[in-house]
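Renewal narrative, Specific Aim 1. Our central claim is that a sequence can be written position by position from structural information alone. The example that follows is taken directly from our test logs and has not been curated for this report. It begins with the structure tokens describing the chain, in the order in which they were read.
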């Protein structure tokens, strides 16, 4: 199983990487969506074979260059994302932001979070098949 973590806070990246590796995930972690190959390539890697897609993506909502929401939107517009998504934020979000997050199939994790919350979410989604990518959001 593969996981992608994107957060500009190195402590969060380290904590989540360790937790996911203990659960058996291959982890790719980035401090910025611009560094993630899923964001940078033009075509969805899922089209090249299902095994190229991560099973889960955990991203911060607010980051300096590209927000987690914009990262997920871009993947969906490319027809990508058969992954389970969790979006984290320590900021109060507007209702329309939360609604869009839910429409995109993302689970919200409030910061600070407990590691047990991450483990519960991982246990919940690990037994489920990968979701189909909904129509692109424009």
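The sequence written for that structure reads:
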């Amino acid at each position: 199983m593969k996981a992608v973590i994107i957060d500009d806070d190195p402590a969060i990246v380290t904590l989540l990487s360790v937790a996911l590796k203990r659960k058996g995930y291959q982890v790719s972690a980035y401090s910025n969506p611009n560094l993630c190959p899923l964001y940078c390539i033009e075509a969805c890697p899922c089209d090249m074979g299902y095994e190229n897609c991560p099973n889960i993506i955990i991203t911060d909502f607010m980051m300096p260059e590209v927000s987690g929401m914009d990262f997920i939107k871009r993947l969906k517009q490319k027809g990508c994302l058969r992954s389970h998504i969790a979006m984290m934020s320590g900021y109060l979000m507007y209702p329309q932001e939360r609604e869009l997050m839910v429409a995109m199939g993302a689970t919200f994790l409030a910061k600070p979070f407990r590691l047990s919350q991450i483990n519960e979410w991982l246990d919940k989604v690990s037994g489920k098949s990968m979701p189909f990518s909904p129509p692109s959001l424009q």
